[in-house]
Amino acid sequence: MERPSRRGLLGGAALVAGAATLPASPAGATASSGAPITGPVTVYPGDPRYQELTVGYNQRWVGAPDYVRVVSSTAQVVAAVQEAVDAGRRISVVSGGHCLAPFVFNSDVDVVIDLSGLDEVYFDQQRGAFAVEGGARLSGVYDTLFKKWGVTVPGGMCPTVGIGGHATGGGYGFLSRQFGAVIDHLAAVEVVVVDRSGTARAVTASRDPGDPNRDLWWACAGGGGGNFGIVTRFWFRTPGTSGANPSRLLVNPPKDVLLSAVGIPWSMLDRTKFATLVTNWGAWYEGHAAPDSPARILSGVASLSHRSSGNVFLLTQVDATAPDAARILADYLGALTAGLGADAVVAAQPAQRLPWLRAVKLIAASIPSFINPTLRGSSKSAYLRRSYTAAQAGAMYDALTRTDFANPAAAVTLAGFSGGAINAVPATRTALAHRDAAFWTLFETQWQDPAADAANIGWLRDLYGSVWAATGGYPVPGDQADGCYINNPDPDITDPAFNRSGVPWQTLYYKGNYARLQQVKAVYDPRDVFRHAQSVSLP
C-alpha cells in the first residue's frame, strides 16, 4: 500500500473450466527474465533471520509462525501452499511488508510465505507486456522500467512498498491524476489458488473479455491482498496500446517535473486560518476532479502534522512538459493559500525542475520514516467527493493543537491522488469502486516506544471520530465522503464501538462491488485458505 505522509517533506465450485495452470519448474530452471531460480529457504524459530522475517513495517504487529518460507519462483509458491494446506496450517503472505494492520503477522498464522526472492521486472515478449513479480518493491520497479524502457506505472512514493499489496488495492501516486491508478494498466495476473479438493495451482487471469478467468483478474484489480490467492506475477500494459516497441506499451512519465515545497508555520495559523487552508484544499480538488481537467497534470500532498512539528507543508508535483505547467502550479498555490495572509507562507521555495526519476528519489529520500525499521503506527483513511466543512477542519485543528499530546509524527495528510484519469474508469470495471472521489485523506500517527501505544491510538481515534461524528464515526459513502481505502486497513472499522455508522466495513472499502468479490472468492478460494481479519468472505 501507498501512504503519503507528513514525515519530513523535502525537508465454492472448482476452478472454472479452461483455467490455465503453470507446470512446476524443474530444479535449476530459469525464470522468464533469464534470472536463475534459487531453492526455497525455510526459516524456523531460533534462526537469526526469524526475528527479521516475522515483523513488517509496523512494529506493533509481530508474528510467531511455525516457519517462514522464502520463495523465488511460482512453482515454489505452489509447493509451499500445498504443503501448508496438506498440514492444515494457516497461511499468510508478505511482499513489501507494509500492511499496517495485523493481517500478515498475528498469532493465528502458522506459515508465512515471503515473496522477497520473487522480484524480477522484465518485458515478456510472449504476452507483449511488462512482467513484475509479486515480491518486487516499488523502487526496483520504477528503476528497471524507466531505465530500460522509459516507462513506469503510476504508483506511490514509498520505495520499500511491495507491488503485491500496492497493486491489488489499487495503487496511487503523483502520476495517478494524469495516468490513472496502477491497476488501470494491469493486463494480467498469475495467482496461486487452492481448489475445493485442496489442490494448489497457478492460474493466469487477464482483462481479455474472452478469458474464462477474467473475474479473478477483476478481483485482483482493487480487491485487496490476501483474499483469493497469492499473486506471483503482474503483467502491465496500458489499454489501447499496440505495436512491438515496449517503450510505447506503458505510461511514459514526464521528462521533467516541477516540484514545489511550501511551509506554513503553525504560529501563523489560528483556528480560522487552518480551516481556510483545509477547505481551500478540498475545494480545489473538488473543482478539478474531472478526467478532462487540464489540471490533472498536478498532484499534491498537504501534510498537516501536529503543532509540535512547527510547520505544515504543501508538496506539489506538476508535469513540467505540459502547456501552462508553471501557471497551473502558481494558480494552485494561490488558491490553497487564499485568505491566509501574505505573512503566513514564509518557507516557500522556488519550484525545482527535475528529471522525473530524480524527483521520485528525492521525495523518497526526504521522508526518513519510509525506511525507518523501528516505528509503530496507527492509521485511518477517507475518500472525499466534496471538501471538508469548516466544522470538520476545526475538529482537525483541535486535535493537532492539543497540548496534552505532542507528537510531531501525528498528522492529517490530504492526498491529491484521486480524480482526473482515475475517475475516467467506471466503478465496476475493476474492483476499485472509488471512481468519483476528488481526493483522499490519511489520518495517522507513528511512534517508537510501546509505552506510548495507548496515547497515540487514543489520539487518532478521537481525531477521526470527531471529524466524522455526523456520520457515526466513519466516512459513509454519500454526497461528501466515499468510504475508506483498502490499502490503509483499519482494525477499528469492524468494531461498533468506533464504527457507529451502521454501514458495514465491506461497504466502506468496496461499496457495490463486494457481492461480486464474494462470488470470485467462492470460485477461486472455496476453502477460505487465504483469509485475514478483514478478508472477503465466502457468500
From TrEMBL:
Keyword vocabulary terms for this entry: FAD, Flavoprotein, Oxidoreductase, Signal
Region forming the signal peptide: 1-29
Domain FAD-binding PCMH-type as annotated: residue spans: 60-241
InterPro entries according to UniProt: BBE, FAD-bd_PCMH, FAD-bd_PCMH-like_sf, FAD-bd_PCMH_sub2, FAD-linked_Oxidoreductase, Oxid_FAD_bind_N, TAT_signal
Bilayer-crossing regions: none
Short name of any one Pfam family annotated for the protein: FAD_binding_4
Cofactor(s) this protein cannot do without: FAD
Similarity remark: Belongs to the oxygen-dependent FAD-linked oxidoreductase family.
Descriptive protein name: FAD/FMN-containing dehydrogenase
Organism field: Nonomuraea angiospora
